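[Archive record]
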Amino acid sequence: MFEIIQKKQLSADVFYMKVKAPDIARNRKAGQFVLVQLDTEFGERVPLTIADANAEEGWIALVFQAVGATTLKLSYKNEGDSLAAILGPLGNPTHIEKVGTVVCVGGGIGVAPLHPIVQAYKNAGNKVIVIMGARNKDLLIFEDEMRSLADELYIMTDDGSAGTKGLVTEPLKTLCEQNPKPDEVVAIGPPIMMKFCAATTKPYNVHTVVSLNTIMIDGTGMCGGCRVSIGGETKFVCVDGPEFDGHLVDWDNMMLRMKAFKNREQEDMHKCRMQLQADSLKGGAK
């Protein structure tokens, strides 16, 4: 069992949890993820990227958004509760080396998994420029953490309530037009954001890495649920990724596949929310 030692709410549906997982904390590398299972007998396993870790203290940090039944149930867990299983670290770690200037772009909750990647590039001696985007100021996360690491920080919001009004692709394009241009770009966030980040950097021939979070079941490449088309070849996000060359991803196909179970997910989440609220009322009435 994996004990939750800290929990905090970052925004409306986004939560941060520190979980005791000493083996994973010792072995994880930037860019890797875990599969989390809440219950011992039933329940799906959900992929969550490791947002931070401490090998000496033996914990990993998970940041997730309550967008489905399982993540909603997870959001009801509290400090002192335990998770049945955490499998990992999984996936290939980010290839980190000193390349010069790296622009790291995070959208929404994607800023959290970007955090250890920014740390790693910075520790390797790179100049790191961070671009963060969100719909509004209340949805910005990890701002202090990124500010403490980045050589330059750009904050973009759709409504202009924090930083500059606009999209993350705007400062990204400006940086690509500079001489010298960035040596590498890493983008993590909603698929549509990553798609347009890749489209922005492609004319400038700037190598662009994206981290994909597709439908995933077993995390071992056996089920095929996470398959994507990369440069015309079929790849599996769980074992071949999660990071790929953003210029080679078939974004439209990936986004279409991710919508396959959307109606079922919303139905299950509604049922789960009703049950959790009913259970909460029963507990309060005792």
User: Anything to note?
Assistant: Residues 136 and 280 are 31 Å apart (CA to CA).
